[in-house]
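Morning - beta-D-fructofuranose inputs below, output right after.
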Amino acid sequence: MKFHSKSLRSTKARKTCIHLLIFLFFCQVVSGQPPKYRYYKEPFRPQFHFTPPIQWTNDPNGLVWFNGQYHLFYQYNPFGNRWGHMSWGHAISSDLIHWQHLPVAIPEADSVMIFSGSCVVDKNNTGGFADKNGQVPMVAIYTGHIIANPKLPDDYHQAQYIAYSLDSGKSWTKYSGNPVLDIHKKDFRDPKVFWYEPEKKWVMILVLPNEHKCQFYASPNLKTWNLLSEFGPAGDSTQIWECPDLLQVPVEGNSGNSKWVLTHSTQFTMQYFVGNFDGTKFVNENPAQKIFRPDQGPDFYAAITYNNLPEGSQPVFLGWANSWRYANDIPTYPWKSAMALPRNLSLRKVDSDWILIQKPLQKLESLRKLVFKQDSFSSKRQYDPGVKSMQFEMELKIAPGKESIAGVRIAKKAEHYLEMGYDQKTGEFYVDRSRSEHQAFNHEFDKFGRFSAKVRPINGLINLQVFIDKSVIEIYVNGGETVFTIQIFPNDDANGIEFFSSSSDAKFLNIKIWELSSIW
Ligand code: FRU
């Protein structure tokens, strides 16, 4: 994002927030259990997506698995429900589905905001942060957003900082030799660091946002960094680049085979490249003139993958389910923004392109309770399955008729609904929220209502897996070949479902609807 907006720091609001945070933490310590927050009952509050109990969040940060726990750090404003005072919030999970909130991990201090970054487990103590007790250090590598004059928020520069923890992420110490990488650029951010085993070195990828470039650096100890190479401009270079990642992704069905994938955000969406990284340089092997997007919806940004996953795990990709077009104004209180569902990544070759396949974690099935099942029906016009809900998962296949448009409406109340469907004439799948019920809160939200992408019927069918979670909707088409993440803000009673088609030769097959239980 461009860093113009600043939230006001009111002393009273700050005090209230600090008290709330202390209270939440206290509940947790006393019970030893994730507390049942009354907070998770508000209008629009997602029930199986991660949200902080209160206040603003944007990018997921520092995703790392360590000692049986998945850590989720996230861009967090401890003092307000809009962007500002960026710090790292913190939650942990043993299954990536249920979360336990922890106190702020790395707070803003001394006019240095804690921007996005990553976390590594320094098993070999390359950084020398381990103490005599032999605790393995976790090291966070983040961008320090340094404000020279608080009265002039545009007067800033960015450099890379580190902090370490010797108690599994509970408490953090900022390194006294910070910053560890400063090239004296105003915009230079979002380091993702990983261990490159063939050369036993740390590799960092980060962006020069306005130059549409990623840079790669290497380090033996996380403290000194040498430039290796650059990638970009490439693909979509019309907007600033942010939040890059570089990782090996397995090729579907070809065990042992993998390719390197470079992903990054570019306002207001993301793109990826598939190719090879030789320890120094990344080379894109997909057609250079084509743009590849992990998500075709308006509300998926800043996604990165987990570091240090147990041997044999598939990569896990987690994104922010919101958009800088209107993120500060969405009508939710006292929290703002959710993370999308964690997604497993693999690669599939479709024609001459390497496509990123995203599947929501299979473990989410543990939340299911079947409420509707039907093998098939054809429907000219509409069919109501009789389920009223905004907290469910749905699977179905569409067998498109000739020149038909067929799909599903959700959040339906009279003429208001969100519509998703396959248009046989254009070969596109679309999602359209322009008729969904909501209060006017930002004209950009109204302006960007319909999203579509070419999809291919597989054996004549369009396969859908859809998650509806109050205000966050995720649609996985054809087993994760095409994905849409989109927010809507309907009133509670806009909760009907309707299957529709424009011609009677379109069919719906294997329809299942599960209510999903709340994770809170
Ligand atoms: C992306 C981003 C990052 C930055 C952070 C600040 O959403 O703009 O580039 O580090 O958010 O909150």
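Note: The longest helix spans residues 11-31.

O.
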